[in-house]
Design a protein that fits this description.
Blueprint (H helix, E strand, L loop, with lengths): L1 E2 L2 H10 L11 E3 L3 E4 L2 E4 L9 E6 L6 H12 L9 E3 L10 E5 L2 E2 L7 E5 L8 H17 L6 E7 L7 H9 L8 H6 L1 E6 L8 H8 L5 E4 L14 H6 L5 H20 L23 H5 L19
Parallel strand pairs: 1-8, 2-6, 4-7, 5-9, 5-10, 10-11, 11-12
Antiparallel strand pairs: 3-4, 7-9
Helix pairs in contact: 4-6
The structure holds guanosine-5'-triphosphate (GTP) and magnesium ion.
The site of guanosine-5'-triphosphate (GTP) has 19 residues, from α2.
Length: about 300
């Protein structure tokens, strides 16, 4: 179902859902259907035609899953003053790589279906777990034959300093897709989450870590879900002065809109190396520290890692 009319679309989605009340705006869990192991779709997958595939990558707790919620709500046409939000999945730590396809969507905002692949965060446990995660990500994309249109690195805007361990993980993260750094860079974006202004200390620190991307976006995903807690939304709408929350909403919406427009022109990246060729090596967590880049690795620098050697 690709609705032109936002109200009809929202009513249909709400009818198929049970409202969840909480501190913030009421949430309607979306009626996603499991189509394959760890792959969900909202509406029927269009058999022919392009679907834009986006993968979210980042350290643990940086806001990947929340960004998925923002993109989902944006793509369904939710506006600031709508007195509800939709929920893609529960707000909890991500354990498994999972994809969510928005076949049903508000076409004015998502002309093409979009699939978002949410991934567990790096640096959640041991280096060994991270190596396994790298392999699992590549395997997920490869085995499901998903050409990737965009890689979204998700890092808090205020992350002005990175530990050696964090730098090493960021430097290695693109390798979850493959070794063609130049091509991966051309479809890579940095999402600076928890942003409360256009000041983004993270830009310096990721540069130092050697993370390469096409462009960056500032977002504050919380702004999408906060209830203005007004006596009457209608009343506030009339007399409104823009709240900080609304400004952050606007910034976030602009970022997501620009991102989704930009990725439509991307040449998709095929992850074609099967995971068999990328057997994880055993090693201890100290390897992170031993191989952290002392300064920004140059574009041509070779890091002697496969998936197994961080
Ligand atoms: N204020 C604010 N809170 C955010 C933002 N992004 C995420 N959060 C909150 O930060 C917490 C972690 O966000 P998640 O989206 O679950 O982070 P994640 O990267 O998916 O975490 P893992 O799945 O554990 O790797 C949640 O409580 C979010 O609501 C943001 O931009 N601003
Ligand atoms: Mg998550």
């Amino acid at each position: 179902m690709m609705e032109e009319n936002k109200e009809i679309l929202h009513e249909a989605l709400k009818r198929g859902s049970v409202e969840v009340l909480g501190e913030n705006l009421p949430n309607y869990p979306l009626p996603f259907k499991l189509i394959k192991t760890d792959q969900f779709s909202l509406g029927e997958i269009e058999k022919r035609g392009i679907c834009l595939n986006v993968i979210l990558l980042g350290l643990t707790g940086t806001g990947k899953s929340r960004l998925l919620e923002v993109i989902g709500n944006y793509g369904l046409g939710v506006d600031y003053w709508d007195p509800y939000r939709f929920q893609v999945k529960k707000d909890e730590h991500t354990e498994k790589i999972t994809s969510y396809t928005f076949s049903t969507r508000y076409e004015n905002r998502l002309p093409l279906p979009v699939t978002i692949i949410d991934t567990p965060g790096f640096l959640n446990a041991t280096a060994e777990d991270d190596r396994k995660l790298m392999g699992d990500i590549r395997n997920f994309i490869h085995s499901n034959q998903m050409p990737i249109h965009a890689v979204a690195y998700v890092i808090p805007a205020s992350q002005g300093r990175l530990t050696a361990e964090q730098k090493t993980v960021l430097w290695n993260m693109p390798k979850a897709l493959g070794e063609d750094e130049e091509r991966i860079k051309r479809i890579s974006y940095l999402f600076c989450t928890f942003a409360d202004s256009k000041l983004l200390p993270v830009l310096e620190s990721v540069k130092e870590a050697g993370l390469r991307y096409k462009t960056h976006f500032a977002v504050n995903s919380a702004a999408y879900f906060v209830d203005e807690k007004v006596l009457s939304i209608e009343e506030n709408k009339e007399n409104r002065e823009k709240s900080i929350n609304e400004l952050l909403w606007t910034m976030t919406t602009e970022s997501v809109r620009e991102f989704l427009e930009d990725i439509q022109c991307n040449w998709p990246f095929q992850v074609n190396l099967p995971i068999k060729a990328l057997k994880p090596q055993t090693g201890d967590t100290k390897e992170y520290m031993n191989t952290a880049p002392a300064r920004a690795p140059t574009a041509g620098a070779k890091l002697s890692i496969s998936i197994g050697k961080f």
